[in-house]
Design a protein that fits this description.
Layout: E1 15-19, H1 26-37, E2 40-43, H2 44-54, H3 57-68, H4 74-85, E3 94-97, H5 103-115, E4 122-127, H6 130-138, E5 140-143, E6 149-151, E7 171-172, H7 179-193, H8 195-202, E8 206-210, H9 215-230
The structure holds adenosine monophosphate.
């Protein structure tokens, strides 16, 4: 070469959507993908819970719907997500966990991405049986320090009471992870979110992954879908 190097090809940061009902493993898998591919997990559920805990106006407005297992209004969710997307750490690419959940949110996301010249790289549906979901959700808990997820039966910490991620010893369970609220969340998923599977199939970005197996097998299947998006 004569000292002139070709400019690196402009590769858009990946925007990956994880779809699936409560308990499908979106959060667990998003965290694994985050570590493996260097993307940032954006969970609207986490953002909303933080807003509720901080007592912000949006948090106060969201709380009743969250406690009942229904969906928070698109306006509130979109405002919270837009704020988060403005932070610099998302430039490497994002995994959207729990968003979009309605066709209105999906259309708004398309518009936000189009404005900054981005597009959805993949929408991955984690396919599970409803019957297994209540058990999965009812048994789960997270480390209070680092957020690592665990389950009473399927993924207990190797040393009881000690987080494998950070050594923390305080754990928390979500208030809405009870049988009654889970049933309402499943209904909301089927009525309002499941139609997005067709929405993303029509756009040619949908992949479906059987998410009934163990965490490592599902992670492998997701990695295979993700690899072309991140190389
Ligand atoms: P998650 O942590 O994703 O299970 O979300 C917990 C709760 O937050 C849901 O049951 C909803 O009440 C609310 N929520 C999270 N994400 C959204 C969203 N994209 N749209 C509407 N409500 C949401």
């Amino acid at each position: 070469m004569d000292g002139i190097t070709a400019p690196a090809a402009q590769v858009s940061p990946p925007v990956v959507i994880l779809l699936g009902p409560p308990g499908a493993g979106k959060g667990t898998q998003a965290r694994l993908l985050e570590q493996r591919f260097g993307l940032v997990q954006l969970s609207t559920g986490d953002l909303l819970r933080a807003a509720v805990a901080a007592g912000t106006k949006a948090g106060l407005a969201a709380k009743a719907a969250m406690d009942a297992g229904g969906l928070v209004s698109d306006d509130i969710v979109l405002a919270i997500l837009r704020d988060r997307l403005a932070a610099p750490d998302v430039a490497a690419g994002v995994i959207l966990d729990g968003f979009p959940r309605t066709t209105g949110q999906a259309a708004a996301l398309d518009a936000v991405l189009a404005k900054v010249g981005l597009a959805i790289s993949a929408a991955i549906s984690l396919d599970v049986d409803d019957a297994a979901m209540v058990e999965r959700v009812a048994g789960r808990f997270t480390c209070g320090d680092c957020g690592e997820g665990y389950h009473d039966s399927f993924k207990p910490p190797q040393v009881a009471g000690v987080c494998e991620g950070c050594g923390g010893t305080t754990f928390k369970r979500r208030a809405d992870d009870n049988a009654q609220t889970v049933a309402a969340r499943l209904r909301a998923y089927h009525a309002q979110t499941a139609p997005l599977i067709g929405y993303y199939a029509d756009k040619g970005v949908l992949s479906r992954v059987d998410a009934m197996g163990d965490i490592a097998d599902i992670a492998r299947a997701l990695g295979a879908v993700m690899a072309p998006q991140t190389t």
